[in-house]
């Protein structure tokens, strides 16, 4: 009876919304979802991510799209800032492994004005040297903070082994060397290579009728050429046969430890049981390592959503020699001892609530639609995964844990730690 109740709750909360799918005249795919929210979120996705970069052009896309948002021919900097304040409109650019995004959040009553600005920022960016230098400095500051913060640096260390010889090895944020060498001509060249309709997807959530939206987007972005972009998927990560550790010693009060492992993508049947199992693992880590043993203030397990995905386990602790065996023991326990269906259903309900809260903003909703359209089987998969989480069984979880929780690539920053701490094998 309880299982039926949970299924009913999930189906009510996560009923698949009505999403309109259209394609503009120049090949831009559009996903739109009407809502009663007076705030509108629009996200432009540029496919490719790290696949758009080379070793020499690391960071060029981030530098380009951030500089584009500084000023355009019809909206120079001071006028742009004044209008953004007047219309309460926000623009933001982000980059990642599989795509970059340009985001706009605005009030519904200023949709027309905000869309006109965004269109001009993309069509007629000034890319002034002063703005390029400003954005460069911001990127260089980000790069410096990568290594300065131990909690960030462990990701870089783990990636040395995970991303070796993979397109993701080209860092979307750039390196100090590449950022310093990039110039305006590099930005113009990259602009010409990525701003084409066939490479783009637009996701919109807000109080705009679908009948109006297509016309608005045609007027705003129809000037882009369709181009001939072909989707090329990144290869799988190189398979590992044993654990590896990238360690950096620092005189700091605690140790930061991150272990990555290769996981299945969203097209795999293994993804859902591994996802549900990871939620349960996260809770069990917290209970054992923090609540019972007091070995940490932060411990977690996570799973990424990318075309070449990975999972990870993380802890910060002053006693890694004791903490790491405990973490491995929790994982082994989930392999050898069936997880109860009650725990699976409870976890499905909790994760459903978390995702519902995370999807409150229109920008978050628009990003989710686009992300699953690009890295998954389509935007509907997000809701299918939520609805089907409670159908996972203990045997599936045990099987995927046995299959994927092995051959970790660790990034570690801290004091002296015995490397044997990370070589526990099942």
Précis, in short:
It is built from 15 helices and eleven strands. The protein is of the alpha+beta class.
| Share in helix | 40-55%
Q: Compute the number of structural domains.
A: 2
Name the helix and strand elements from N-terminus to C-terminus, one letter apiece. HEEEHHEEHHHHHEHEEHEEHHHHHE
Strand content: 15-25%
Q: Would you state the CATH class of the largest domain?
A: Alpha Beta
**Which radius of gyration do the C-alpha atoms yield?**
23 Å
Write down the overall mean pLDDT. Answer: 94
Shape descriptor reads globular
CATH topology of the largest domain, by name, is Cytochrome Bc1 Complex, Chain A, domain 1
Give the end-to-end Cα distance, rounded to a whole number of Å: 38 Å
Number of helices: 15
* Spans where pLDDT lies below 50 across 5 or more residues: 1-13
Give a verbal description of the structure.
There is one protein chain. The protein is of the alpha+beta class. It folds into two domains: 16-221, Metalloenzyme, LuxS/M16 peptidase-like (Cytochrome Bc1 Complex, Chain A, domain 1, 2-Layer Sandwich); 244-422, Cytochrome Bc1 Complex, Chain A, domain 1, CATH 3.30.830.10. It is built from 15 helices and eleven strands. It has helices at 2-13, 60-68, 77-87, 111-123, 129-148, 150-162, 176-181, 184-194, 210-221, 271-292, 320-336, 341-358, 362-375, 380-388, 394-404, and strands spanning 20-23, 29-34, 39-47, 90-95, 99-107, 200-206, 244-249, 255-262, 298-303, 310-317, 409-414. Strands 1-2-6-3-5-4 form a six-stranded mixed beta sheet, with helices on both faces. Strands 7-11-8-10-9 form a five-stranded mixed beta sheet. Strand 1 and strand 2 form a beta hairpin. Helix 10 crosses helix 11 (320-336). The radius of gyration is 23 Å and the shape is globular. Mean pLDDT is 94; it is low at 1-13.
């Amino acid at each position: 009876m309880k299982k039926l109740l949970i299924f009913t709750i999930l189906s009510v909360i996560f009923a698949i919304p009505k999403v309109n799918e259209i394609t503009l005249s120049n090949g831009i795919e559009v996903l739109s979802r009407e809502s009663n929210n007076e705030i509108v979120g629009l996200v432009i996705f540029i496919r490719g991510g790290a696949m758009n970069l080379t070793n020499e052009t690391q960071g060029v896309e981030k530098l380009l799209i951030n500089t584009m948002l500084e000023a355009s021919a019809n909206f120079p900097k001071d006028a742009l800032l004044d209008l953004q304040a007047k219309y309460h409109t926000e623009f933001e650019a982000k980059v990642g492994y599989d795509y970059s995004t340009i985001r706009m959040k605005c009030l519904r009553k200023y949709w027309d004005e905000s869309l006109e600005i965004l269109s001009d920022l993309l069509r007629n960016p000034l890319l002034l040297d002063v703005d390029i230098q400003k954005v460069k400095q911001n990127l260089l500051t980000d790069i410096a903070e990568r290594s300065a913060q131990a909690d960030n640096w462990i990701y870089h260390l783990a990636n040395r082994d995970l991303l070796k010889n993979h397109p993701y090895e080209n860092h979307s944020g750039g390196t100090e060397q590449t950022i310093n060498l990039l110039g305006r001509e590099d930005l113009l060249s990259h602009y010409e290579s990525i701003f084409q309709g066939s490479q783009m997807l637009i996701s919109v959530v807000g109080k705009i009728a679908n009948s109006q939206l297509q016309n608005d987007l045609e007027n705003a972005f129809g000037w882009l050429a369709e181009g001939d972009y072909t989707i090329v998927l990144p290869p799988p990560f190189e398979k590992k046969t044993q654990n590896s550790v990238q360690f950096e010693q620092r005189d700091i009060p605690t140790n930061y430890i991150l272990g990555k492992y290769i996981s299945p993508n969203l097209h795999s049947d293994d993804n859902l049981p591994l996802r549900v199992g990871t939620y349960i693992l996260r809770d069990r880590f917290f209970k054992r390592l923090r609540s019972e043993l007091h070995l940490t203030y932060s411990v977690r397990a996570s799973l990424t959503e990318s075309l070449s995905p990975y999972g990870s386990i993380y802890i910060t602790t002053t006693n890694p020699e004791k903490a790491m065996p405990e973490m491995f023991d929790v994982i082994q326990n989930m392999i050898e001892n069936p997880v109860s269906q009650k725990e699976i259903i409870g976890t499905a309900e909790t994760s459903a609530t978390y995702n519902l809260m995370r999807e409150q903003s229109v920008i978050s909703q628009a990003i989710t639609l686009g992300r699953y359209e690009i890295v998954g089987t389509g935007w509907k998969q997000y809701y299918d995964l939520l609805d089907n989480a409670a159908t996972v069984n203990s045997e599936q979880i045990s099987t995927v844990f046995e299959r994927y929780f092995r051959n970790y690539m660790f990034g570690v920053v801290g004091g002296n730690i015995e490397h044997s701490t990370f070589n526990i094998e099942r």
